[in-house]
Amino acid sequence: MFDHIAILAPGLLGASVARAARHYGAAKRITLWARRPETRLQLKDQPWCDRIAETPAEAVREAQLVIICAPVDQIVPLVTQIAAHLATGAIVTDVGSVKGEICRQGDKALAAPASSANFVGSHPMAGSAQTGWEHGRADLFVGRAVFVTPLPTTDAKATERVVAFWAALESNVATVEPDAHDEIVAHISHLPQVIASTLCASLAKKDPRWRNFSGGGLRDTTRIASSDPKLWKSILEQNRDEVLRALRNYQEELQAMERALANRDWFEVQAILERGKAYRDPFRPIP
Amino acid sequence: MFDHIAILAPGLLGASVARAARHYGAAKRITLWARRPETRLQLKDQPWCDRIAETPAEAVREAQLVIICAPVDQIVPLVTQIAAHLATGAIVTDVGSVKGEICRQGDKALAAPASSANFVGSHPMAGSAQTGWEHGRADLFVGRAVFVTPLPTTDAKATERVVAFWAALESNVATVEPDAHDEIVAHISHLPQVIASTLCASLAKKDPRWRNFSGGGLRDTTRIASSDPKLWKSILEQNRDEVLRALRNYQEELQAMERALANRDWFEVQAILERGKAYRDPFRPIP
To answer: Is B143 left (phi over 0), alpha (psi -120 to 50) or beta?
Structure first.
């Protein structure tokens, strides 16, 4: 579908995009650029890598689609860096977990009068406990939600091509405005991260050996607390306002539970548990 | 090891005890009693059931070990019901998630001058998303923590036999006083349940379709919110004071995170995330 794509800063997600694009025939030619020379050396030998570039500018020169897979605080700097080197009509997207600021600034970075390139943000809701390009999988996006987040002013054709790209990797694409995206993920992704991390931080203050008694419940509830703190600090920084709003909604619910327990209002305790169950039961299994 | 055990009100746990006792040779003869006649009919045909009793009293008459697998609010009533029918020197245990009140009242119920029976509480930290005796597994306790919770006055020999029974099913037995147990599980089991349920109850107030965008993070963090609300209401009721204490500790941590976000104190945000990761990383994999 694309003759040539470039993937910048591939980790788990970037390598999975490359493998999936090859597997599903979504790109004829795949160029990669990684920040570290040793990573570039290793990537060179992968069957899903046609060319390694020494610089971001060199990587994007002939690409119709550029996918930036760097951490959220490094995405806009990379867009700025490649802006002057993009091919005519090129599309730039990313895989960052926050979209409002990135989409507005990405759009601005490509808005120079001479540029015909378009920025269209993306965010695949896929990941793994493992990080690093070595763990990339061609089926990482199959059945997973991928947000595509154009601004109201974004070129409709460019948006359509980005949607088609992710759909070709067998994901479920949802097109929403960047700020709506940030509200959604604040609730379904960033809030759970904050909750899992603070639960662990709170348990760490008691006897940490208690963890060895735990069953599957605590294990599952806290799994994502093992995520990279630096990465998540950046995500929370970029989505601070929405995360604070979601966190305050959550605290109200928690206080309602505390009140019910304190007042021995067992009817209300059970009602909260039942509302929780009613929300959780219809979750679809992940393929 | 035991010539004869009786299992009252077998669900997932009780059926797993029966299967495991048979598999590991921990009991020569296994008698079951279930409240519903239709369940008794089905159990009769299981290879791990030697006899079905029509009443709890009849079930325990010849047993050296009685394992009560009913929900927490039905355990003490069952102990009271069987007290006069126990064999000389019989041991009664249970699998309830809360131990303080159950152990004190179970002990009292067997303290009649004519009785030579002993109550020793147990709590296996094992379970499954599935409930019901049909899902019982002989390996449910392998590598799992099982609490055995004698009172300071409990007969040491009786405690030792209960410990040996669970150890024979290849679990990791930990002997702790009932109140210490309740503090531990308030933190590592009941608090995670409250957190998962309130997270879901809070998300239910936003657009519930957002759940379809979620990745593995929300799914894992909220899995136990699908548990039985009635069962958990009883557990929270029995362990109210300890759960409230754990919940207040947790709310302090959550407020620290809220403050750090509100103050844009990114150093503190990352510090909390790192404390959470340090607690979570050493979790041993479950066999």
So the answer is: left
Architecture of domain B2-176: 3-Layer(aba) Sandwich (3.40)
Q: What is the DSSP letter of B186?
A: I
- State how far the Cα of B38 lies from the Cα of A200, in Å rounded to an integer: 44
Mean pLDDT value across residues A280-287 = 79
Please give the pLDDT value at position B284: 73
A203, closest residue in chain B (CA to CA) = B187
- Over the stretch B127-178, which tens digit does the pLDDT of each residue have? 766 789 999 999 999 999 999 999 999 999 999 999 999 999 999 999 999 9
Burial A111-145 (b: 16+ CB within 10 A, else e): eeeeeebbbbbbbbbbbeeeeebeebbbbbbbebb
> Would you say residue B202 has pLDDT above 90?
yes
Q: How far apart are CA A191 and CA B71, in angstroms?
A: 33
CA angle A80, A83, A85 (to 5 degrees): 135
> Could you say which of 1.10.3660.10, 3.40.50.300, 3.40.50.620, 3.30.830.10 is the CATH number of the domain covering B180-280?
1.10.3660.10
Locus of tokens 């987040």: A149
Q: Of residues A216 and B98, which shows the higher confidence score? A: B98
- Residue with the two structure tokens 């249970």: B94
Q: Predicted confidence band at A19 (pLDDT cuts at 50, 70, 90)?
A: very high
* Structure tokens given for B174: 């930990």
Partner residue opposite B247 with nearest CB, options A147, A258, A273: A258
Is B237 a residue whose pLDDT tops 90? yes
Nearest Cα residue in chain B from A226: B277
User: Which residue in chain A has the smallest CA separation from B280?
Assistant: A226
Beta carbons of A161 and A117 less than 8 angstroms apart = no
Report the amino acid identity of residue A208.
Answer: P
Say whether B187 and A203 touch across the interface (CB within 8 A).
yes
Name the residue ranges covered by the structural domains of chain B: 2-176, 180-280
The residue to which tokens 């979570």 are assigned: B280
Strands A145-149 and A121-124: antiparallel
Average pLDDT, chain B: 95
Task: List helix spans (H) across B7-99.
Answer: 12-23, 37-43, 56-60, 75-82
Asked whether the beta carbons of A55 and A33 are under 8 A apart, the reply is: yes
Q: Which residues pair with A90 in a beta bridge?
A: none
pLDDT in tens, A228-273: 999 999 999 999 999 999 999 999 999 999 999 999 999 999 999 9
Q: Which of B194, B199, B270 sits opposite A229 (nearest CB)?
A: B270
Same fold, A2-176 and A180-280: no
